[in-house]
Amino acid sequence: MKTQGEIEAAVCQGINRFEQEYMGRGPKEIHAHLIGDLILVRLRGVLTAAEQQLVKTLPSDKGRELLKQVRTQLMETARPALQTMIQGITGIEVVSLHHDISTVTGEEIVLFALAASPVTREPKKG
C-alpha cells in the first residue's frame, strides 16, 4: 500500500514521461493532487516553442482553438495508455479523464476520476 505522497509522485513521473514522449518535451513544473477519488495534475510551462509561435502569429481565437484541438486529440489518442498508467499506480479503475490547456499561461490541467478512492497508508514518522 502506498502513501498519498507516493501516489502523487508516481503520477507526476508518469505524466512527465508521457509529455516527453508524446509532446517532445516535459513541463517546467508538475504537481499531482489526490483528492478522494480524483487525481488532479497541474502542469506549467508545457507549450513548445512552435505552439507559442502559433498562438502569437495567428488571430488570437484561431490560434488558441487550433492548439486546443491538437492537444485534445493527442490526449484522446493517449487516453488508454494514461488510464492504464493511473490504474497501475492507484490500483483503481479510471472512470473518466478531463483535460484543458491555457494558451495564455502555458498551464495544462488533467483530471482523472476514479471508480473509488485509493486506500493509502500514513507516512512513517521519522
What does this protein structure show overall?
- The protein has 3 helices and 4 strands; from the N terminus they run αββααββ.
- With 126 residues, the protein is an alpha+beta fold.
- The chain has one domain.
- It has a 4-stranded antiparallel sheet with strand order 1-2-4-3, covered by helices on one side.
- The radius of gyration is 16 Å and the shape is elongated.
Q: Helices and strands in order, then pairings?
A:
Layout: H1 4-23, E1 29-35, E2 38-44, H2 49-57, H3 60-90, E3 94-101, E4 107-114
Antiparallel strand pairs: 1-2, 2-4, 3-4
Helix pairs in contact: 1-3, 2-3
Brief descriptors of the model:
126 residues, alpha+beta, 4-stranded antiparallel sheet, 3 helices, 4 strands
